Amino acid sequence: xxxxxxxxxxxxxxxxxxxxxxxxxxxxxxxxxxxxxxxxxxxxxxxxxxxxxxxxxxxxxxxxxxxxxxxxxxxxxxxxxxxxxxxxxxxxxxxxxxxxxxxxxxxxxxxxxxxxxxxxxxxxxxxxxxxxxxxxxxxxxxxxxxxxxxxxxxxxxxxxxxxxxxxxxxxxxxxxxxxxxxxxxxxxxxxxxxxxxxxxxxxxxxxxxxxxxxxxxxxxxxxxxxxxxxxxxxxxxx
Length: 238
Known about the structure:
Elements: H1 3-16, E1 18-20, E2 42-44, E3 65-67, E4 88-90, E5 111-113, E6 134-136, E7 144-145, E8 156-158, E9 166-167, E10 179-181, H2 195-198, E11 204-206, H3 214-217, H4 223-237
């Protein structure tokens, strides 16, 4: 892509606060964006070939939304975590194995999408994020859901298409969790904590495609309590 095209995009971005350059085969983060650190509210560089997110990302202190879906990122710089206004972060379809240790500093984060990466566990850093609404960790290599998950503040947690065979009973203690997606994992019915049904806030539990028949779920103690929450929520949205 020529410089003139990039220049035009930069000029537009300066006026709109939005820089979007997707599917252009970019191999690196455009350094010229530095000129717009105080203008930009949204950056979308999805569907490129970016391998490294440079430390300068930390300078975009007004950024609210960052999308880098379908790139070639293997790690994230700690500087990303300086973005105190960032509310939406989309990193689907990269090669991420873990998040920076200081990820919990992204205090405004509401939506986090990490579908299609190489995470092996639910990152404990997510538990420090107080405003998190939706977390998508589908299509990773997660095998178990640890005790720390009980502190997760999310309303929806998507763990579809992982390799999960164990879930901590602490998931029932998530204060705001309403939607839990666990489709296409490796769960035996005995490994699904019954307290999710009997003693949690969860009103939508999606568990199709595991190692048990759904009708067996209905025989578990607490299923009627879960159905009460499910029905009440459905009425609310109907």
